[in-house]
Design a protein that fits this description.
40% strand; 81 residues; 3-stranded antiparallel sheet; binds zinc ion; mainly beta; single chain; 5 strands
């Protein structure tokens, strides 16, 4: 369910050393801080599920890369269906 894949190839500072490749997020379940690896090669806007490293429950992660290479990461619980 990706939305705008046509914008992925705009100028994106891959290789400049300015793209964030990890982030720190707070687990919405257990409240523990997790350091997660990001994959800039997957596009500027990413949404995927990752398990908490502490309590193993699934988060829905939304990663948005800003033009300067900063990653805006939000995480929410994935079992509220
Ligand atoms: Zn957790």
């Amino acid at each position: 369910m990706s939305e705008h894949d046509d914008e992925l190839d705009e100028e994106f500072p891959l290789g400049n050393g300015t793209v964030e490749t990890e982030a720190t997020v707070l687990c919405p379940y257990c409240g523990e801080i997790n350091e997660i690896a990001l994959d800039p090669g997957s596009g500027r806007q990413q949404e995927y599920v990752e398990d908490c490293q502490v309590c193993c429950r699934p988060w829905r992660l939304v990663v948005t890369y800003l033009p300067d290479g900063t990653a805006d990461v939000s995480v929410e619980a994935d079992d509220l269906r």
